[in-house]
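Need a sequence for this fold. Nothing fancy.
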């Protein structure tokens, strides 16, 4: 069985008028392979099948997240930075922790303003696959910061 290794990040899109002034801007998610340049700039490479080449998209490094290789109850991919619910409650943040060399979970109420805590939980593969748990992606820390603020109340 092959492991799927891919990443996501947000790119800034914009529309300019005929004078080159930005009229509107918005962020969107892009998924693919990671290119990390020596100057620190991060890119997500996506395959453009029509052109038979990869397109290079500069991303906001704060939004970079790796695919965990896991899917939620609805078949949605789970990425680092996602907020999941367990059985409809217990919201948790998914994050890769270098000291543990794995993806870990933290209860939202335990997070500080830097999205960190001393209470990262390593969970076994059996935890994710247990029939006793219904895991759903309910958002992420970039698009849905309100999910974290609600827990602070």
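Here you go.
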């Amino acid at each position: 069985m092959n492991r799927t290794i891919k990443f996501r990040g947000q790119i800034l899109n914009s529309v300019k008028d005929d004078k080159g002034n930005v009229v509107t801007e918005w962020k969107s998610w892009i998924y693919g392979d990671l290119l990390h340049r020596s100057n620190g700039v991060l890119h997500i490479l996506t395959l453009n099948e029509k052109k038979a080449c990869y397109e290079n998209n500069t991303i906001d490094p704060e939004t970079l997240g790796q695919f965990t290789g896991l899917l939620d109850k609805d078949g949605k991919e789970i990425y680092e930075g996602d907020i999941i619910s367990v059985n409809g409650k217990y919201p948790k943040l998914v994050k890769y922790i270098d000291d543990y060399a794995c993806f870990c979970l933290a209860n939202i109420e335990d997070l500080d303003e830097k999205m960190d805590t001393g209470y990262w939980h390593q969970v076994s593969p059996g935890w994710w696959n247990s029939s006793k748990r219904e895991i759903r992606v309910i958002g992420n820390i970039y698009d849905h910061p309100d999910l974290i603020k609600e827990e602070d109340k």
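For context: The first helix runs from residue 125 to 129.
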